[in-house]
Design brief:
The structure holds 3 protein chains of 3 kinds. Chain A is an alpha+beta fold. Chain A is built from 13 helices and 14 strands. In chain A, helix 10 packs antiparallel against helix 11 and helix 11 packs antiparallel against helix 12. Chain B is an alpha+beta fold. Chain B is built from 6 helices and 5 strands; from the N terminus they run E-E-H-E-E-E-H-H-H-H-H. The chains are: A alpha+beta, B alpha+beta, C alpha+beta. Chains in contact: A-B, A-C, B-C.
C-alpha cells in the first residue's frame, strides 16, 4: 500500500555527498539502506521524514574486511552478507549465529546489521554479540569522523547516541589475540521468523575470562560486568553457573508485553545464559574452528 | 516524480514514479505483473517476493524508486520459456492448494537451488521459512524440492 | 477390484498449471480500468458505544473524494441464519473496529486520508468481553432488538438476554446414568478465539451500472449465498436477484472466513452510491483479524460418568460460546456443536446445552472444524483422563465406547457406515501405541497422545448443488458449478467425477470458477460437503449427458441402448465389438443419417442434488425427532511429542492421522488436506493466540505477533492414512474431509503432554511459555 504522504528521495553516489545531504536536512532526513524497518514505519505513520537518503550507492560501505586486527563491517553489509562471510564465521561466530536467526532469508537479503543497531528496538539480534565483542561504531558528518563504543551507543528503546547529521560508516570489532569462542541464544515463539523476546550472548576469552550480554529484556541491551566478574573469578562450574543465574534477577528487567511475560523472559534468560555459556565453552575447547 | 528504468523479466521498462510508491504496487498496478501478491504489507508473509538483482526480496518493503537501474524478476519471468523443473515437480506432485503463496514460494526455492543445488532438508525449510502458507503444511513443498535435487544429480 | 480410470488417482490439479506459473488471477489481480474507485472504511474505536453523530465535513473536503457512505444510507440488516448484522453501524457499535462509514475516492491515498478525518462522536456503553459475564445477572444487553430479528426456525433466541440461541439435547435418563456410574469426572475446558489467516485478504469490487446491473467480484466461498443476501438486504432499493451477478475468481485460502457475507456487502451497497463506477474494497491484514469472522471461543463444562470397565453411562456437556457482536453465522456453529458434542461415542444418556452468547468482541463465524475442534478439546481430554483414572488403556477405552453404524446419535438418528474402528487400529499401530518412548536426555520428556474425531456438515436441510456440463467440438468439457476451489482441489475432484463417467481425461475438462449468471446454483463451499453434494450433482450431470449420448447413438445407429458403453472418449457396443464412434465426431455436430440429415445437437448435461432425508423438525427441548445432519466423517489421530522441560518447547516427532473419506477420489489431495489441516491444528495449540486489551481491541492483528507456522515449524514426520468405507449416497462412495484433519489436534497434544509430564492443561493455546510456567509451578525444583 502506498504511503499516503509525500517526501523527497536522494541517492548520493559517495559518502561525501551523503554527509552533505544529511548535514543539510538533519532531523528531516532518514537514511535508507535495506529499508526493512523504514518502509514499515512509514506505512504505519511512525516516521514521516521529509527526505529519504538512499545510501545503497555508496559501495565502499558494503565491505566486510580485516583492518589490522579489527574486523570491519560496512553499513551496507546485509545479514546474508554476514552469513556468507568466512571472516565473520571464523572470527565472530556469535554474530554469525545471531545473523542466522534474524527474520528470514528474503529479509536478510536486504536488512543490514547497522540498520538493526540504528533502529535500537529492544528485539534486535545484533546488539548483544557486538557488546560482548566491544565493537565500535564509526560515524561521519560534515563535522568530521566520530566513534562510539557499543556500550555508549544505546540510549533508550529506539534511541541511540547518534547525532542527526551523522551517518554510520561501519562497525569495527577488535579481535582478541588469543583463543576465544562465543555463543548466541535467542528466545523465539517458534523456530521460524520471530523477533527476539530475550537473547543472550556469551563470549569466552579464557578459562577465566568472559563477556556476557542480555538483549530484549530491558529498554536497551545490557552487558553484565557483575556476572562476568563472578565467572572471571570462579570459571565455569556448577556452583558458579548457579550463582550467576541467580544474579540475573538483578541484572535484567524484562517486561510483559504481547510477545511474552516478564516471568518467562526472566526464566529463559537464565536457561539461555547457561546454554550459551556451555556452548561457548564447548566451542572454545575445539580450537580448530574458532582460533584466529 | 522521477523517471526510472529497470529490467523487468528481461525487458527494459521505463516509468515515472513518486518516492512514496512501493515496488509491489508499481509491479502490480502499473507494470501488469500480478504474480507478486500482498498478504501482510509488512514483510512477514513473503507473498510479495520478487528477485531483485538475483536475490529474493520483499517488494512490499522496497520503494520503487530504489530499483532504478536494477533487475527484477517475478514468477512471470521465470515461466516465460515454459515451466522450470521446479515448477514441473510442484505441478506433478500437487503441492499447492490455493496457490496464493506459490509465486513467492517458487522464487525462494529457485534462489535456494541456484545457490545450493543439493540442500539438506533443514536448508530447504530455512530457505522457505519466510514464505507463509496456510494451506499445505509445507511438507509436500519441501518433499518436492528434495526429490527434484535427487533427480538432478 | 478398482476398475476406475480417474477416480482414486492422483491426477494433476486442473488449476495446477495456472498456480505454478503465476497465471492464476485472484480478485485483486483483475483490472478494472482507469475509472476504478477506492473505498476506505471508517472503523469504530469502542467495543460498545452509541453513535451520537458522524461529521464528514472535513473528510469531504479532501480532493478526489466522491462520496462518504454511512449507516443512514443503508439502514438494512442482514444475516445468513439470523438478521442481526448491519451493512454499516446504525445507532451503535458493538465491537472494536466495526464499520461505521466508507469513504469513496479516486485514489487509495485520498480515501485513506479522508477516512482519518471522519469524526464520530460516541457515548460509550458498558461492554461485555466474555460469555460468562454476558449471561450474568444485570449484564449489559448487546442486542436489545434480539426478539425482532428474523431467523431460521431451528434457532431459539432468548429476547432480553445475550443468549442468541440455545441448542438443547436431552436423551435417555441422564441423572440415572450418573447414578449408575462408578466414576464421574467433571471439569471445565477453555478454548479462545482464533483467526483463519488465509494469506489472501478479503477483497471485493462492485459496479452498479447505469442499466441497474450490480456486479460484484469477490474472494468468496459463497457466491450464490452472497447474491441471495445482497438481494434480500438491498430489496428496498428495488434490486432483485437477477440484477445481481457475483463472480468469484480464484480464492487465496478460505478456511471459512470467506463463507457467508462479511465485508462484501459493503462493496455491493456503496456501488449503488457511485453508479457507473467500479469501486474496490480491500481488506488489510489487520482487518482480516478483527473484521471478518473469528473462530468462536468457548468455555465448556463437561461431566462424564463411567462404569469400572470403562463403559460411559452418561454425558453432560454445557458449552458457553463467545460468539461476538453479531451471530448471524456463528449461531449455527453453536447449533452444530449442540447436536454433536457427544463426539464419536455411543452414549445412552445425554444432556447438552450449547449457548450462543453475544459479547462485544468481533463477530464469530465459520472456521474450519465449525466448533468441533473446540468441544473435542475437552471431550477427548476427558476420555483419556478417565481411562487413566480407571487404569484402562486410552485406546481401548475409545474402542469400547465408539459409535458404530446404526447406533443412535444424541438426537436419535442412526449413525452412517464408517471406518472408525479401522482408523483407531491403524493409527495405534503406526504410532506404536503400546511402546513407551523415553528420551536419554533427562531434560527431554517424550509422550504420546491419542484422539478420535467426527464431524458432520452443518447445513440447512435443503442445501443443494447443481451442475451444467457442456461439451465442446473436440469432446473437451466445460463443467459449470458454483462450488469454490479454496485450495482443497474442488475443481479437480469435480473433473475426475465427470471424467470417470464420460471417459474424457481430466486434462480435457475445465471446471469453471463461479459466476452466478453463468454457473448454476450452489449453496456454499463450506461444511466439507462439496465433494459429496456438488460431486453428486456433477455425477448426475455426467450421467444425464451420457444418457443423451446413448439415446442419440441408439436412435441414429439403431443399436440397443442397453448395449452401449463409453471407453476412451468413444461410444462402443457390447454386442458389436467392431462398432465405435468418437465423441468428438458427433458431440456438437450430431450424427449424419443416410439421407444426409442430422440427429442430435450439442450435448449438455444437467445435474442437481439435494439431500431429501434431512429435517430440522425436532422437539426444541430435547432435539429428538429430526434428522439435521446428512452423515459424519470420522477418524483417529495420534502424536508423539518431545518436550524440553527447561523451556517448554515442544517438538512433534511424529503425527499419524486416519480419516474415513468414504472413497478417496484424489489421494494426493486428501493427503494434502491431512498434512495441511494437521499443521493448522497444531498451530492453534502451540503458537496462535488472539490477544485483546481491556477495551476489546485486538493487540496482535498482524503476523509479527499472531504466529502462524513457517516451514521450520512442522512435525518431523507425518503419516496420513486414508480409510475408505463407502458413503452409500456419496459420489463413488466419497464423503467430505476438508475440515476434519485439524479437529483432533488439540486434545491429542494435551494428552501427549500429560503422558510426558503428568501435567494436564485445560485451556488453549498450549504455548511453550504456558507449558514452561506450568512446569515451574508444578515442580519448582525442575532445573532452571
Amino acid at each position: 500500500m502506498a504511503i499516503p504522504y509525500e517526501f523527497a528521495y536522494e541517492k548520493p553516489q559517495n559518502l561525501e555527498m551523503a554527509v552533505k545531504l544529511l548535514g543539510k536536512y538533519g532531523k528531516k532526513a532518514r537514511l535508507l539502506a535495506g529499508g526493512t524497518d523504514l518502509a514499515n514505519q512509514m506505512k504505519q505513520g511512525f516516521r514521516v521524514p521529509g527526505i529519504i537518503i538512499d545510501i545503497k550507492g555508496i559501495h565502499e560501505m558494503e565491505e566486510i574486511k580485516m583492518d589490522g586486527n579489527e574486523l570491519h563491517i560496512g553499513s551496507l553489509a546485509t545479514f546474508n552478507d554476514l552469513l556468507s562471510s568466512r571472516l565473520i564465521k571464523e572470527n565472530v561466530n556469535i554474530l554469525h549465529e545471531a545473523a542466522g536467526l534474524v527474520a528470514s532469508n528474503g529479509v536478510r537479503n536486504r536488512a543490514t546489521m547497522v540498520g538493526n543497531i540504528c533502529s535500537a528496538v529492544a528485539c534486535m539480534d545484533s546488539a548483544t554479540p557486538l557488546m560482548v565483542h566491544e565493537a565500535v561504531i564509526h560515524t561521519l558528518s560534515t563535522r568530521g569522523g566520530n566513534s562510539y563504543r557499543i556500550q555508549d551507543w544505546f540510549v533508550d528503546n529506539r534511541k541511540t547516541a547518534i547525532q542527526d547529521d551523522e551517518i554510520v560508516t561501519h562497525v569495527s570489532i577488535p579481535l582478541p589475540a588469543a583463543r576465544y569462542a562465543g555463543a548466541y541464544q535467542k528466545l523465539m515463539r517458534y523456530s521460524g521468523e520471530d523477533l527476539s523476546q530475550a537473547n543472550v550472548s556469551v563470549l569466552m576469552l579464557g578459562e577465566k575470562q568472559f563477556s556476557v550480554a542480555f538483549g530484549s529484556v530491558g529498554p536497551i541491551p545490557k552487558r553484565s560486568l557483575k556476572i562476568e566478574h563472578l565467572l572471571n573469578e570462579e570459571g565455569i562450574s556448577e556452583g558458579s553457573i548457579s550463582r550467576a543465574k541467580n544474579m540475573i534477577d538483578s541484572v535484567i528487567a524484562p517486561i510483559t508485553d504481547v510477545r511474552a511475560t516478564k516471568e518467562y523472559r526472566m526464566h529463559m534468560s537464565k536457561v539461555m545464559f547457561e546454554r550459551a555459556l556451555l556452548a561457548a565453552r564447548e566451542r572454545y575447547n575445539k580450537p580448530r574452528v574458532f582460533f584466529k | 516524480m522521477k523517471k526510472i528504468s529497470f529490467i523487468l523479466n528481461g525487458e527494459k521498462r521505463f516509468i515515472h514514479v513518486e518516492p512514496n510508491e512501493i515496488l509491489l504496487d508499481v509491479l502490480r498496478d502499473r507494470m501488469g505483473t500480478k504474480s507478486p501478491k500482498c498478504g501482510c504489507d509488512s514483510g512477514d508473509c513473503g507473498a510479495c517476493t520478487v528477485m531483485l538483482n538475483s536475490k529474493t526480496a520483499r517488494s512490499c518493503m522496497i520503494f520503487a524508486i530504489e530499483t532504478d537501474g536494477q533487475e527484477i524478476v517475478t514468477l512471470e519471468g521465470i515461466s516465460k520459456s515454459g515451466l522450470t523443473p521446479l515448477q514441473k515437480i510442484f505441478l506433478e506432485q500437487n503441492v499447492f492448494q490455493c496457490g496464493y503463496c506459490a509465486p513467492g514460494m517458487i522464487l525462494s526455492a529457485t534462489e535456494l537451488l541456484g545457490k545450493n543445488p543439493h540442500p539438506s532438508r533443514y536448508e530447504v525449510q530455512e530457505a522457505l521459512a519466510g514464505n507463509l502458507c496456510r494451506c499445505t503444511g509445507y511438507t509436500p513443498i519441501i518433499d518436492a524440492v528434495l526429490e527434484l535435487t535427487k533427480k538432478q544429480v | 477390484m478398482d476398475a476406475f480410470q480417474y477416480i482414486g488417482k492422483s491426477v494433476v490439479k486442473v488449476d495446477g498449471r495456472e498456480k505454478v506459473s503465476g497465471a492464476a488471477l485472484f480478485t485483486e489481480d483483475i483490472e478494472f480500468g482507469s475509472d476504478l474507485l477506492y473505498a476506505e472504511v471508517v472503523e469504530g474505536s469502542h467495543a460498545h458505544a452509541m453513535i451520537n453523530s458522524i461529521d464528514i465535513s472535513e473528510a469531504m473536503k479532501v480532493p478526489e473524494v466522491l462520496s462518504i457512505v454511512t449507516g443512514k444510507d443503508f439502514p438494512y440488516n442482514f444475516g445468513l441464519y439470523m438478521n442481526d448484522r448491519y451493512i454499516f453501524a446504525q445507532d451503535r457499535i458493538r465491537f472494536f473496529g466495526e464499520q461505521i462509514a466508507v469513504v469513496i475516492a479516486r485514489t487509495p491515498q485520498a480515501a485513506k486520508k479522508a477516512a482519518q478525518l471522519v469524526r464520530v462522536n460516541y457515548t460509550p456503553l458498558p461492554k461485555v468481553l466474555n460469555p460468562l459475564d454476558a449471561i450474568a445477572a444485570g449484564a449489559e444487553i448487546i442486542h436489545p432488538d434480539l426478539g425482532q430479528y428474523a431467523h431460521v426456525p431451528w434457532f431459539f433466541p432468548e429476547a432480553g438476554t445475550n443468549i442468541a440461541h440455545h441448542r438443547k439435547i436431552r436423551k435417555g435418563e441422564v441423572d440415572k446414568g450418573f447414578e449408575d456410574a462408578d466414576y464421574i469426572l467433571e471439569d471445565t475446558y477453555e478454548v479462545p478465539r482464533y483467526s483463519h489467516c488465509a494469506i489472501e485478504y478479503h477483497a471485493a469490487v462492485a459496479k452498479y451500472d447505469h442499466s441497474g446491473r450490480l456486479t460484484v467480484w469477490a474472494s468468496s466461498q459463497s457466491p450464490n449465498t452472497q447474491r441471495n443476501l445482497f438481494a434480500k438486504a438491498l430489496a428496498p432499493l428495488g434490486i432483485r436477484h437477477n440484477d445481481i451477478r457475483v463472480i468469484a475468481p480464484h480464492v487465496g485460502g478460505g478456511f471459512g472466513s470467506k463463507a457467508g457475507v462479511t465485508m462484501e456487502i459493503m462493496a455491493a451497497a456503496i456501488a449503488i452510491k457511485v453508479q457507473g463506477h467500479p469501486v474496490k474494497i480491500m481488506w488489510n491484514r489487520e482487518r482480516e483479524f478483527y473484521n471478518t469472522y473469528q473462530r468462536l471461543g468457548v468455555v465448556a463444562k463437561l461431566k462424564i460418568g463411567v462404569k469400572k470397565d470403562g463403559t460411559i453411562t452418561a454425558l453432560k456437556h454445557d458449552l458457553y460460546w463467545d460468539a461476538g457482536a453479531y451471530v448471524e453465522y456463528a449461531a449455527n456453529v453453536v447449533n452444530a456443536v449442540g447436536l454433536s458434542a457427544i463426539g464419536p461415542y455411543n452414549i445412552r444418556n445425554v444432556s447438552i446445552d450449547s449457548y450462543c452468547i453475544y459479547t462485544n468482541l468481533p463477530p464469530g463465524g465459520p472456521y474450519r472444524g465449525f466448533g468441533y475442534s473446540e468441544f473435542l478439546f475437552g471431550l477427548e481430554s476427558h476420555i483419556t483422563r478417565i481411562a487413566s483414572h480407571l487404569g484402562i488403556d486410552a485406546v481401548e477405552m475409545r474402542k469400547k465406547n465408539m459409535i458404530k453404524e446404526g447406533d443412535l446419535t444424541a438426537y436419535g438418528a442412526h449413525m452412517n457406515p464408517n471406518g472408525l474402528s479401522e482408523a483407531i487400529t491403524k493409527v495405534a499401530k503406526e504410532i506404536q501405541w503400546n511402546k513407551k518412548d523415553r528420551s536419554s536426555d533427562p531434560n527431554l520428556a517424550v509422550g504420546k497422545g491419542f484422539a478420535l474425531f467426527w464431524k458432520a456438515p452443518a447445513m440447512p436441510p435443503n442445501a443443494s448443488s447443481s451442475c451444467f456440463l457442456k461439451f465442446n467440438e473436440d469432446a473437451s468439457i466445460n463443467l459449470l458449478v458454483s462450488g469454490v476451489d479454496i485450495g482443497q482441489g474442488f475443481l479437480t475432484v469435480m473433473a475426475q467425477i465427470a471424467a470417470e463417467i464420460l471417459t474424457v481425461p481430466t486434462s480435457k475438462i475445465r471446471t469453471e470458477n463461479p459466476d452466478t449468471d453463468r454457473n448454476p446454483y450452489e449453496w456454499q463451499t463450506v461444511a466439507s460437503h462439496v465433494t459429496w453434494g456438488c460431486g453428486n450433482a456433477v455425477r448426475n450431470a455426467a450421467i444425464d449427458a451420457r444418457d443423451q449420448i446413448f439415446s442419440l447413438v441408439s436412435r441414429s445407429k439403431f443399436l440397443p441402448i442397453e448395449d452401449l458403453f463409453l471407453e476412451d472418449e468413444k461410444v462402443k457396443c457390447k454386442t458389436q465389438p467392431s462398432f465405435e464412434l468418437r465423441l468428438r465426431d458427433f458431440i456438437i455436430q450430431g450424427i449424419q443419417m443416410g439421407d444426409g440429415t442430422f440427429r442430435g445437437g450439442p450435448i449438455i448435461g444437467r445435474g442437481i442434488f439435494m439431500p431429501e432425508f434431512t429435517s430440522t423438525n425436532a422437539d426444541p427441548d430435547t432435539s429428538q425427532g429430526g434428522h439435521p445432519n446428512v452423515h459424519y466423517t470420522v477418524g483417529a489421530a495420534a502424536v508423539t511429542i518431545q518436550i524440553d522441560k527447561q523451556t517448554g518447547r515442544m517438538n512433534i516427532l511424529k503425527v499419524v492421522e486416519a480419516v474415513d473419506v468414504g472413497k478417496a477420489i484424489n489421494p494426493d489431495l486428501i493427503k494434502g488436506q491431512i498434512i495441511g489441516g494437521l499443521l493448522q491444528g497444531i498451530s492453534t495449540v502451540l503458537y496462535e493466540e488472539m490477544k485483546f486489551d481491556h477495551r476489546g481491541k485486538m493487540l496482535n492483528p498482524n503476523f509479527t505477533d499472531y504466529k502462524i507456522p513457517t516451514a521450520l515449524d512442522i512435525p518431523d514426520e507425518i503419516v496420513p492414512i486414508i480409510i475408505e468405507v463407502n458413503q452409500p449416497d456419496g459420489p463413488f462412495g466419497a464423503r467430505g474431509m476438508g475440515e476434519h484433519p485439524m479437529i483432533p489436534v488439540a486434545p491429542m497434544i494435551a494428552n501427549a503432554i500429560e503422558d510426558a509430564l503428568g501435567i494436564r492443561i485445560k485451556s488453549m493455546p498450549i504455548t511453550a511459555e504456558k507449558l514452561c510456567l506450568e512446569i515451574l509451578k508444578t515442580n519448582p525444583k525442575t532445573p532452571q
